[in-house]
Design a protein that fits this description.
Blueprint: H1 3-16, H2 24-28, H3 43-57, H4 60-72, E1 77-79, H5 85-91, H6 105-120, H7 131-156, H8 180-194, H9 210-216, H10 220-234, H11 237-262, E2 268-271, E3 275-280, H12 291-299, E4 305-309, H13 320-326, E5 327-328, E6 331-332, E7 335-337, H14 360-364, E8 379-386, E9 394-400, E10 409-413, H15 414-433, H16 440-460, H17 481-495, H18 502-513, H19 517-523, H20 531-538, H21 550-555, H22 569-575
Amino acid sequence: MKMKKIFNIALSAIIGISLSGCSKFLTLLPLNDVVFENFWTDKADVESVLLGTYSALESSDCIVRMSMWGEMRSDNIVAGNNPSDDLLQITKENLLETNSLMSWSCFYDVINRANTVIKFAPGVNDPNYTPAELDGNLAEAYTLRSLCYFYLIRAYRDVPYVTRPSAEDTEEFVIEATPFEAVLDSLIETMEYWAEKAVKKYAATSNYTEEQANTGRITQTAAYALLADLYLWKGEWQKCSDICDKVLARKVIDYKELKEKQGSDCLVVYDPATNPIPMYKETTGSTTAGTAYNQIFGRGFSFESLFELAFMDNQSVSNSFVSSYYGGRNSSGNLSAYSRLFIDASSTSGNEYFKPYDCRYLECMADGSSTYPIRKYVAFNTGFDLVSASTSAPVANIQYRNENQNANWIVYRLTDVMLMKAEAKVQLANEIGGGAVASAEVTDLLREAFDIVSAIYNRSINYPTNARAIPLVFADYSGSIKSMEELVLLERRRELLFEGKRWFDLVRMCRRDGSTRRLVSTVIPKFTENQSAIRIKLADMDAIYFPIAKSELKINPLLHQNPAYIEDEYTAKASN
């Protein structure tokens, strides 16, 4: 990529940004007269290209892949209405290198933009650009780059790892893939340094509110969330727990500031004795609930959000992923919820995933005639009315988004980090106890994990005083590390449903187990045909990752296809 193309990338990003005003650069020079000497002269130039990096990550191509890589192969998703053939094949576990959705180029676009900021921002000679501001901007760029690579290695395992911009005429970046572990180690080292340099809190500006700035841009809390996730995948359990504690401590500070501003109107509940982690309450009265969903997914930019891709209503850039893939006001999308997630959840005992009065199954799904439409992000407002306290399940009154209302896409939020800590505590217990509950220390670790899960679960139970509400009981899980591990995994599924997390959780479990056995038994029931063939295919550890797109293999001959997807001579001929 030539130097001038970098300018074109930067400028096209500036044009499409919804959070910034016009660049002074655009007002001085025609677009076709861009020269390097006129750019990177002050902090506004850095800000423009940096915001362009966010804009690239907000593209529908990126968001589709965040969901596809982390969700669509899981036991949460099946095909919905009128999916494209490429999408349909993914839901059937028929992954081909020719599938257009296998391309990773949109993420490398974001990476190249971040690398451009990392290379050129330190050379800006502007007396008003302080070292702290430079560090904050670099921390944003490094975190965005690390986030993209984290998505890539979780999806593909080994990927080309490029840490400089494609800026010279002779540079083609035809390089071999770097192994998963080497990339992961580099990301951890990067984030251990740059998370400490990140901005703790942004102030409001004329373009965005304080809430929008502190959830729509990388803060130190967001950088810590990514680092905790990296530690979780590395198996650094204590480090993961410690970083999660930093996030939770920051949210306590944020709560105190919020409470001081809002007083009795504050919807976040916190008490060191009874509610040690500040979270939205779900119930708003004796017969209504839905507060947490409405704040986090409906309104957006919430107290519990750590980093989300922001879309402003009535702007040219929209989150088309939600309306196309999850559905709209009066229609189902290309994807559907797996039926067993919803069926019988309102019965006396609930189902194997959701218990009665768990608001989340109604907030996330709807009962369709042949499919179960996904409603997370699609619903703008939810309210739950109780028909009969003794015999009936809550009834959801849902207000859907209008066509010009965009849902933000959440990358990290508070309960995600809480459940990272719970998982780390269980794995610490497993490490110390050798797989058995053999000591008080192990029991204490399991108790910590259970208390986190219970806090999230209890928040989601509508009308907890009702006799049909089923509480979690520590004794049901404390006798087995495996049982507690499965409880944490199940709560992550319930809480983070359709947020692009589930398949990654199953892959992480496989890497820890050294086997796909549990993943296979988990996802096979959703398939109505070819179960035996899919079971055989997924028995291969290589198959839990995606195939590299054929187009990428042509561009870079040093790449090698994932062994699980290499066609034999007969298959190749048959497909031609």
